[in-house]
Amino acid sequence: MQTAADIQILNEKIKYSSVFIDKIRNELSKIIVGQQYMIDRLLIGLLSNGHVLLEGVPGLAKTLTIKSLSQAIDAKFSRIQFTPDLLPADVVGTMIYNQSKNEFTVRKGPIFANFILADEINRAPAKVQSALLEAMQEKQVTIGEQTYLLEEPFLVLATQNPLEQEGTYPLPEAQVDRFMLKIIVGYPSKLEEQMIIRRQVQDTDTASISKIVTTKEILDGRSLVRQVYMDEKIEKYIIDIVFATRFPDDYALSKIKSFINYGASPRASINLALAAKAYAFMNGRGFVIPDDIKAIANDVMRHRIGLTYEAEAENIKTENLIDDILKTIQVP
């Protein structure tokens, strides 16, 4: 049990150690206009050691933001453009025959990096998606008879386009569950779009991103995020939110029962806690408050609740159900 003095010491430590978050934000603002919500969620994934899935129409700077984030950190980056003819070996690597040595040698794939941009992940067949998602879960890759551990930090940032579903391979629900966060990327505001136009049409050199953060700072930040204090009442609040998706009747939410095919998995509880701690860390706090849970609930849970045909017929989104749950569950 942490005392008030312990939390105060942790607060001071976090305020000092979380400075690199603002450094990253400032660096990304050289290239990215707006999209603060997306950037903050990517940073939560980075600090929580959780993979992130971004969904949005083309042209919203999803790929550019991920690439810029990786450039701001002194780490290895790989981009994999998912296409229907991609093979698992194109992602993880394979054994190739070395004619001069008369033996098979391992050629590692692009997954051997710290940051993996899986662009348009729903364009590749299930076997390729499975190869990537297995590496995400196990943090290791087996090629031939040899198993290779992936370097830390290891983060998969995947994008998918909700348009043009013809010729795509939607991620199965069980595999989507392995992503800590699913972010819905929206359009910029009028003012932001005006700034985007100005930047693109001006005849000036494009700004470049500098490497301002080391992997050690990221790993140290992750260690501190784990130490952020979470009261037992907050833990129970998280459990009530997740259980309300499974047993709505127990929480006076019978009105949403017919819209839920299946509730959130235990990964939702774990990731709500971790993401809330990361959110508190980014705000310079050594403790979690209920508002932290509310801020990241949609991102953690929107891809973990199955909708019934009735919900789809009435155009009910998972976000609508999560909002109803958050309004009903008593805040500690």
Structure description:
The protein is built from 15 helices and 13 strands. The protein is an alpha/beta fold. The protein folds into two domains: 1-30 and 227-332, Magnesium chelatase subunit I, C-Terminal domain (Helicase, Ruva Protein, domain 3); 35-199, 3-Layer(aba) Sandwich (Rossmann fold). It is globular. The model has no long low-confidence stretch (mean pLDDT 86).
Short précis:
This protein has 332 residues and is α/β, with parallel strands linked by helices. It has helices spanning 4-17, 19-28, 36-48, 62-72, 88-92, 126-138, 173-176, 190-201, 215-227, 232-246, 254-257, 266-282, 290-301, 309-313, 318-328; strands at 52-55, 73-74, 77-81, 93-98, 103-108, 115-119, 140-143, 146-149, 155-160, 181-184, 213-214, 260-262, 306-307.
Secondary structure layout:
Elements: H1 4-17, H2 19-28, H3 36-48, E1 52-55, H4 62-72, E2 73-74, E3 77-81, H5 88-92, E4 93-98, E5 103-108, E6 115-119, H6 126-138, E7 140-143, E8 146-149, E9 155-160, H7 173-176, E10 181-184, H8 190-201, E11 213-214, H9 215-227, H10 232-246, H11 254-257, E12 260-262, H12 266-282, H13 290-301, E13 306-307, H14 309-313, H15 318-328
Parallel strand pairs: 1-9, 1-10, 2-11, 3-6, 6-9
Antiparallel strand pairs: 4-5, 7-8, 12-13
Helix pairs in contact: 3-12, 9-12, 10-12, 12-13, 13-15
